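hiii, so i know i said id send this last week but things got crazy w the move. better late than never?? heres the sequnce for the chain we talked about at the cafe, plus the structure i predicted for it. fair warning i was half asleep when i ran it
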Amino acid sequence: MLAEESGQSGPAAANRTWLVDPLCGTVNYAAQTALVAVNVALRAGPAVTVAASADPFAREVFWAAGNRAYVRRHGLDEPLAPSPDSRLVEANLDPPFPNGPAFRAVELLADPEFGDRFRPRVVSSTLAVAWVAAGRRAAYVTDGNLADSVHFASGIALCRAAGCVVTGLQGQPLHTGVRGLIAAADQETHTTLLAVIGRRFPQWAPRTRA
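okay and structure toks below
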């Protein structure tokens, strides 16, 4: 197990590892803001095979197993359906910023095309990654090395299982190159975000798309 609070337990090279973030959105919680997630994911070999992100205040559990993704409410499961219709794009403004100053997500908010096409949101909890899978956000953008991340593993698995477009910040396979994350509800949203990033940060022009 790898947990945010307690660290690694058991063999670090184990084939199966539980990734656990018991409270994603600690500052929100401390400020009595009901936007937090409880994230659990099981990595078996290189892939996350099952995952869940729970919203304890809304009493919803977003969960994925293989290529199936659902939200559970009142004991009933509904398939997750990504959608770009909200035009809401979540940008993670919390550090660390390993690619700064070359890339900072906050600069996307000042881009004219971004403002014309999308509406920025900052929830400051990876609950918003699950919302991309559920059709409540058009996309999520963050910097960082997210391999085996207790914060992001479950949300990424949910997005992949729901059929979202999930890549690194240059459109490359996730966890490679400059890393980071773009999780988009559809290809058009993903392409637009890559174009904004490529124009705002010319050295980051898209290279290989998923």
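btw The chain has a mean pLDDT of 93. thought thatd interest u
miss u guys!!
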